[in-house]
What we know:
The chain has 285 residues and is of the alpha/beta class. The protein is built from twelve helices and eight strands. It has helices at 2-11, 27-30, 35-50, 61-65, 68-84, 99-110, 134-139, 169-181, 205-211, 229-235, 248-251, 264-280, and strands at 14-17, 56-60, 89-95, 118-121, 143-149, 193-197, 217-219, 242-246.
Amino acid sequence: MERLYKKIEENGFVCVGLDTSLDYIPEKMKKNKSVSEQLFDFNKEIIDNTKDVCAIYKVQIAYYESYGIEGMLAYKNTLKYLRDNDLLSIADVKRSDIAQSASQYAKAHFSGDFEADFMTLNPYMGMDSISPYLEFIKNKDKGVFVLLRTSNPGANDFECLRLKDDSELFYTIGDKLKELNDKLIDNSGYGPIGLVVGATHKEEVEKIRQRYKNMFFLIPGFGAQKADSLNVYKLLNSLNGGVVNSSRAILKNYLNYDDGEDKIGDYAREKCIETRKEIQSNGIL
């Protein structure tokens, strides 16, 4: 998390989501290539043109799993390319399991072919679905982002259920994670256990940021889901303490321009800078 904090200080808080689909890769980029090469070459074009204007890359595994072995080869090669270029990565896998199964997920995504710097986790099986990752967090300099308050419309179905003390379920989960994180604070002032906090719930963002001061946020909802930039600004902490994910809005920005197919990376870069500026502008209102 300390590396991520420093990267944000240098490059800003944008997280580029590599939700890469063959549907929006230009035909001329696909010619005479395998599926894995098509996906990886598109990702490489995005990475090469955005690596100095973003903090981290989030690789959503579902997009690669959907293409079978070829897709997972592209997933592997993308993560390796990020490591080789000293860039940070989040494996967006949302794992949720306990005991040895969780340990194997940790091993799978914190080492070997699919090694990433961070993983996303689903906490709804309990704290014993989080604890198996602590070995890698403490000994291998890894981090996790755990689902707290997600940006999707159905989030209220479970996350906001009222408990006997009239608190909402997601705050109870957050408090337990905070207790664990507080024992692991580093020089950045944050710990390695972060939270996924969507920017689509404007009435809650300030309270969540205040309650979890020493926790990094992975913030979805800006971009294609059109969350208000002010909500995003309030979830950050002096423009740090979190990363703002944007996937399709960045990857597909080239489609908005007549010469886009020749400048995929340029227009992705432009969208990263535009996203950063739009959110930063809330600080001078």
